[in-house]
Amino acid sequence: MPRLPILSVLGVALLAPTAIFAAAGDLTEITNFGRNPTNVQMFVYKPTRLASPPPLIVALHWCSGTAQQMFSGSQFANIADQKGYIVIYPDAPEAGQCWDVHTKATLTHDAGGDSLAIAEAVRYAIKEYGVDKKRVFATGLSSGAMMTNVLMGAYPDLFAAGSAYAGVPYGCFEGPDMWQPQCANGQLIKTAQQWGDQARAGYPGYTGTRPKFQTWHGATDSVLYPQNFFEQIKQWTNVLGISSTPTSNLTNTPVANYWCATFGNGQLQANFANGVGHEIWYREGDVLDFFGLSSLTPAPGPGGEGPGPTLPPVAQWGQCGGINWTGSTACVSPFVCTVISEWFSQCK
Ligand SMILES: *[C@@H]1O[C@H](CO)[C@@H](O)[C@H](O)[C@H]1NC(C)=O
Ligand SMILES: *[C@@H]1O[C@H](CO)[C@@H](O)[C@H](O)[C@H]1NC(C)=O
């Protein structure tokens, strides 16, 4: 096991601010979701009211973070209560709680590593929860942002878009160790073609649509140096087949001291935060805008137009999920909605 001196520092820098709005429900662990060679733990947040069909966001924690911290420290779950998408929070199995973004297995489609478990959880959610397979997204912070880059390269068939906060390009950490200092320090420079070739090698022969990509970085980041932001722009403009000259570049956007550059027809959006270090934090609304989920609403509830009343939680032994289930997915405390089969989840 390589030593990871910097990771505890990372964790401290990225501890989530206290959540102001709590999600209405709890995280539920899902097991037996498919191939999981590295024992990634998987947790799901399913709001009571779902859009029909519901989109899915995979939200990836930072080094030393956990699924639970990503759940309570970001706003994706409580916004899901209003919009009706599902969130999956994977939890890294490695000591140090960093994602494996360096092995050949994790970097390659269906070859293993942490990325395979995440891909299998997405497939499971499509089958089990009726997730809209055209609206599956990934986002992450730091190590989670590196994994977001990895997923866009190795599983472009599964994701419509990704959003990376303080990450590195797909493949930048490739090698024997969990930490790749040359990449982290912004000294791994490649041409757009080289980065593009590397990302395409994540899924050889793939010819389908490539995910849209949004990236964010602090200009004074000294953990994953900002050069990694510019290397990501090279990589994804090449993969997406669009010019690396932005079609627009707005200063003080989306907030003072940031600039926001758009490439192609919006397939790539790059946000650079002057005066901000590695602790750049989520702007969930801008992520949801980029994913096209801002105007999403839950399916009409019983008895009328528009969002229905919040459904009451289900009692012990009652149904709380399954293919095309439109009733409540929350259970009366202390019961937990447990998957029995793809047709039937039960409060027990
Ligand atoms: C966008 O504009 C800012 C401010 O003028 C500039 O520093 C930055 O390099 C521009 N970004 C791109 C990708 O051209
Ligand atoms: C679920 O609902 C969709 C949309 O109404 C329908 O096309 C599909 O056949 C249903 N699936 C099952 C398994 O009943």
- Can you tell me the CATH architecture of the largest domain? 3-Layer(aba) Sandwich
How many DSSP helices?
A: 10
The small-molecule ligands in this entry are: 2-acetamido-2-deoxy-beta-D-glucopyranose
**How far do the termini sit from each other?**
40 Å
Describe the structure.
It is globular, with a radius of gyration of 19 Å. It has 2 domains: 283 residues, Alpha/Beta hydrolase fold, catalytic domain (Rossmann fold), CATH 3.40.50.1820; 37 residues. The chain has 348 residues and is α/β, with parallel strands linked by helices. It contains 10 helices and 13 strands. α8 packs across α9. The structure holds 2-acetamido-2-deoxy-beta-D-glucopyranose (2 copies). One 2-acetamido-2-deoxy-beta-D-glucopyranose binds next to β8 and β9. InterPro entries: AB_hydrolase_fold (IPR029058), CBD (IPR000254), Esterase_phb (IPR010126), Plant_Biomass_Hydrol_Est (IPR050955). One of its GO terms (molecular function) is carboxylic ester hydrolase activity. Pfam families: CBM_1, Esterase_PHB. Esterase involved in the hydrolysis of xylan, a major structural heterogeneous polysaccharide found in plant biomass representing the second most abundant polysaccharide in the biosphere, after cellulose.
